[in-house]
Amino acid sequence: MNSERYRKIIGTIVLVALVAIGFSTPIQQWMMLPEQVSVPVDANIDEVKDSLPSLFSIHTEDEAAFTVAAGDFPVKKIHKDRRERIEVIPGGQSIGVRLNAKGVLVVGFHLIETMDGQKSPAESAGIQKGDIIVKLNKQPVEDMHEVATILRAPHEAQPIEVEVIRNGKTLTKTIDQSITASEGIGQLGMYIRDSAAGVGTMTFYEPLSGKYGALGHVISDIDTKEPVAIHKGEIVRSSVRSIAKGKNGIPGEKQASLTTSQHVLGTITKNNTFGIYGVLHHGHDLVNEGRLSMPIAFADEVKEGPAKILTVVEDETVEEFDIEIVRSSPQKHAATKGMVIRITDERLLDKTGGIVQGMSGSPIIQDEKIIGAVTHVFVNDSSSGYGSHIEWMLQEAGVPLENDERKAS
To answer: How far apart are CA 211 and CA 6, in angstroms?
Structure first.
């Protein structure tokens, strides 16, 4: 009887001990060791060791694997998946952005006196906020000036045929202007504005394909707050005339204009949370600046500490300024705001007050590698803001992060 009781007690103690061992720190760390790690081809063994728990040491076997040991006892063999480090050309240039190269944007409606009471003829005709007007009475329109010219012409109160683009589809609507005595755009009962979306900064471009990335964040309509739909978007050169200095609570701004020639650099094909993307035209003049290609750094390689940004604060001259990486998240999947950065360059702080509107997209350089782009400013601290990792911007641009050899394996 006592023997049976002792066996149960001992069995219970052994079971509890096994469970406790399973929850111990060394065992938990061993269980967390991966079967395979992704390593840049030029990474050294210390960089790999830094990513493992401090309990373990590393013994290199060959180019394809290494052994993790606890003291003198080997505990696991881990295979290396070697990442080819690609190179792109850093930007920093100020660019003008037109998400809709032709047409004017409908941003709202207003009521006017008609024979049927107060109403908006445009809204009654089925036109919606966010529509891009590309033709009036079969005449192409590219800006608000052309809209005004067409509407000033005598129409004898005839209906106005309006061709719009909505969600990539072309639609035709007819506005009955016989119900109102108003003239010009006022007779239509809608607010419109040119579709140019402002200025930003080029982040990078891939020299062989011409694919580029810029801004690092989505362009939203100032009135609708929705991402602006793209219709024949394009980027052009821009020149910074002056800086409206930022201060806590009020973001500053680059006050820039399109260059006199308004030479189109390339197309815009994508506008999302990671920025704008497209392809540069053959023969674009960015190549004349003679910038050399630079390797990229993956998200898990970015370190806290000194770094630099490339941006324009006067005319079209790209300059280098000091910043600090305050925090970086070693993201394994695409996500925005992967870094917290702070401007430390006294000259830039004196000139701009920190991060300003129009600086979004400025490439971030660390250890002679492109690590990301400036994306947002903190409203209550204009010297600080967020950055996005270059790895995710390259994916959005369609620039392969892997060479053919790795894909084949």
So the answer is: 74
Q: How far is CA 62 from CA 33, 50, 52, 378, 389, in A?
A: 19, 19, 19, 47, 31
Q: How far apart are CA 341 and CA 325, in angstroms?
A: 5
Three-class SS state of 232? coil
Does residue 334 form part of some domain? Answer: yes
Distance CA 324, CA 174 (A): 56
Q: What's the order of all strands across the beta sheet hosting 57-60?
A: 36-40, 73-83, 65-70, 57-60
Per-residue CA distances from 184 to 121, 189, 268 (Å):
13, 10, 32
Q: Count of H helices and E strands in the chain?
A: 8, 29
Report if residue 405 sits inside a domain: no
Q: CA 211, CA 199: separation in Å to the nearest integer?
A: 19
State percent of the chain over pLDDT 70.
Answer: 73
Task: Please write the tens of the pLDDT for every residue from 320-370.
Answer: 999 999 999 988 889 999 999 999 999 999 999 999 999 999 999 999 999
Q: Which residues are catalytic?
A: 217, 345, 360
Q: Is the pTM of this model over 0.85?
A: no
Instruction: Print burial letters for 372-402: b (CB count within 10 Å at least 16), e (below 16).
Output: bbbbbbbeeebbbbbbbbbbbbbebbebeee
CA-based radius of gyration for the chain: 29
Structural domain of 189? 104-194
What is the domain count for the chain? 3
Same domain, 50 and 155: no
**Rounded-to-10 torsion of CA 275, 277, 283, 289:** 20
